[in-house]
Amino acid sequence: MTVIVIGGGASGMVAAITAGERRENSVILLERQARLGRKLMATGNGRCNLTNTDCSLQHYHGTDVGFMAHTIEAFPPADVLEFFKDLGLLTVTEPGGRVYPLSNSANSVADVLRYGLEQSGVRLLSGQPAREIKRAGGGFSVITDTESLEADAVIVAAGGAAGEKLGGGKDGYALLQSLGHSRTALRPALVQITTENAYPRALKGIKADAGLTLESGGEVLASGAGELLFTDSGVSGPAAFDASRAVSEAGDRQMTLALDFLRAYPEKDVFALLSARREKAQALAAGELLTGALHNRLGRMVVKYAGLDGTKPIGALTDGELRRAVSACKAFTLPVRGTEGFQNAQVTAGGIRTSEFDPATLESRLVPGLFACGEVLDIDGDCGGYNLQWAWASGRLAGRLGR
Ligand SMILES: Cc1cc2nc3c(=O)[nH]c(=O)nc-3n(C[C@H](O)[C@H](O)[C@H](O)COP(=O)(O)OP(=O)(O)OC[C@H]3O[C@@H](n4cnc5c(N)ncnc54)[C@H](O)[C@@H]3O)c2cc1C
């Protein structure tokens, strides 16, 4: 049969390779951009965190996360790694189960997929956006700017709205909606949290390991821990990304983000550490109270946040002042403004309703012969390789075309 895959990103390339593995299929891969896998090459800061050895469903979000259970079971991380190994890719697993190419270069992942497409005999049409999908007889016509292509089956793998500069957009939703599908609200996820910015701006570029608690009116909306990066307008980095989904979900509610820079130490231990420092380093300026415990600039900023006079000798600090420094280390609280938009987001929360697809095949329940995979569907994952795992697994299943 003739199969058209719309979108040459992560899920589309795997779907096309899989469909092409059956020699009776003639597969066309349509990509809007000049090059395949542009977003893929930017993933993981150019290193591509391609999967995670722990892909349990708790790392995923969407209206019905259970929908994806079969997809992930059918192509779990171990099989993903085997698939890539067959294509020549070597990988390493880092703490937290995050898997990267051994080359440390996302290009290696895109390169082996391009090789896989060649091996599977897939015909590439790049620089060709699909403008329309029409039902024609028992099959489909896919209309581009220059031609009308006929197919027995179509796989929509056009991605989500996140990462606009890298190819993110809303075409996939529009194409599926034109055939009767519907979608949930779209929100940026895995994105920088914007906060009241005086402190973040002063700390710009500094990374810190921190615990993080997002609160609104006394209710904890999200909590987590890990690497944070201060930016001009707020906080970025994996720990902030994971909480960002809850920020965009909460909409206009007033929220605060409390950062714990000494998460391994209970408050009483921090107080004991600072008291000992007061004894041993009496003549040092209070601005240096946390030197050696935190990044120097961060330590000075925490002292300032605690309202201490940084020029006063440490030996002259009162117990009350030390307690304020402890609180500032353990709950450095920033009022939240929101998140950055789709342009800077790594993934889209929301998408085409999964209830309209068969979880066993990813075939549309509304239009036989139509399949969807990847971010265009209402599934998104945490930071840590989960989104690409979903893209590979769903691409693999859709590419089987119900077989
Ligand atoms: C900066 C950044 C870093 C990331 N890092 C990671 C990471 O390390 N690990 C991880 O798991 N996830 C990461 N992600 C998320 C991950 O890249 C995506 O979830 C994944 O690529 C989604 O796969 P997809 O195939 O659904 O969409 P995409 O990979 O976005 O592919 C969709 C493709 O469809 C094409 N397209 C769109 N419309 C049309 C049309 N009308 N006609 C033809 N083609 C079309 C697009 O140009 C694009 O190439 C990152 C995302 C970003 C933006």
What does this protein look like?
The protein has 403 residues and is α+β, with helices and mostly antiparallel strands. It folds into two domains: 2-188 and 349-399, FAD/NAD(P)-binding domain (3-Layer(bba) Sandwich), CATH 3.50.50.60; 192-340, no CATH class. It contains twelve helices and 21 strands. The protein has helices at residues 10-20, 38-42, 69-74, 77-86, 106-119, 171-178, 198-202, 238-250, 267-280, 296-305, 319-330, 386-399, and strands spanning 2-6, 26-31, 51-52, 60-61, 91-94, 98-101, 123-126, 132-136, 139-143, 148-151, 153-156, 187-189, 193-195, 207-216, 219-231, 234-236, 255-260, 332-339, 347-349, 370-372, 380-381. The mean pLDDT is 96.
Descriptive keywords:
single chain; 403 residues; alpha+beta; FAD/NAD(P)-binding domain; six-stranded antiparallel β-barrel; five-stranded parallel β-sheet; 12 helices; 21 strands; binds flavin-adenine dinucleotide
What oligomeric state best describes the polypeptide chains here?
A: single chain
Lateral strand order in the biggest sheet: 13-16-15-14-17-18
Shape by Cα distribution? elongated
Q: Any idea of the CATH class of the largest domain? A: Alpha Beta
How many structural domains does the protein architecture include? 2
Question: N-to-C terminal Cα separation, in Å?
Answer: 13 Å
Mean pLDDT: 96
CATH architecture of the largest domain: 3-Layer(bba) Sandwich
Topology, number of strands: 21
Return the CATH topology of the largest domain: FAD/NAD(P)-binding domain
**Segments where pLDDT lies below 50 for 5+ residues?**
none
Briefly note the structural class of the backbone. Answer: alpha+beta
CATH-level-4 superfamily name of the largest domain: FAD/NAD(P)-binding domain
Helicity level, as a percent range? 25-40%
Supply Rg: 25 Å
Ligands bound here? Answer: flavin-adenine dinucleotide
> Strand percentage, roughly?
15-25%
Q: Main β-sheet: number of strands, strand sense, barrel status? A: 6 strands, antiparallel, barrel
Number of helical segments with 4 or more residues: 12
